[in-house]
C-alpha cells in the first residue's frame, strides 16, 4: 500500500465520520443555541436545563438517522473489506 492509497483510505474514513456524526452534532448545536437563547431571554440561569433538551433531541435524531448511519458505515466497511481482499 503506497502513500496515495493510505491517503485515500483516510479521506474516505474522515468523510464517513462527517456523514455519520455531522447531523447529530448539528442537531445538538442547534438545540443548545435555542435553549441558551431562551435562557438569556427569560433570565433563567439553571445550568442543568440545557442537558435534557439536548439529550432528547439527540435521541430523536439518532432514531431518525440510524438507518442512514448504518448504511454509511456498512458501505465504508465494504470498501475497506474490498481493499483488503484485493491486496491493497
TrEMBL record:
It comes from Hansschlegelia beijingensis. The keyword Lyase does not apply. It is a multi-pass membrane protein. GO terms for biological process: bacterial-type flagellum assembly; protein secretion. One of its GO terms (cellular component) is bacterial-type flagellum basal body. NCBIfam families: fliQ, PRK06010.1. Its main location: membrane. The chain crosses the membrane at residues 20-41, 48-69. The keyword tRNA processing does not apply. PANTHER family: FLAGELLAR BIOSYNTHETIC PROTEIN FLIQ (PTHR34040:SF2). Role in flagellar biosynthesis. Pfam families: Bac_export_3. Keywords: Bacterial flagellum, Cell membrane, Cell projection, Cilium, Flagellum, Membrane, Transmembrane, Transmembrane helix. Belongs to the FliQ/MopD/SpaQ family. This is Flagellar biosynthetic protein FliQ. It is found in: Cell membrane; Bacterial flagellum basal body. It comes from the Bacteria.
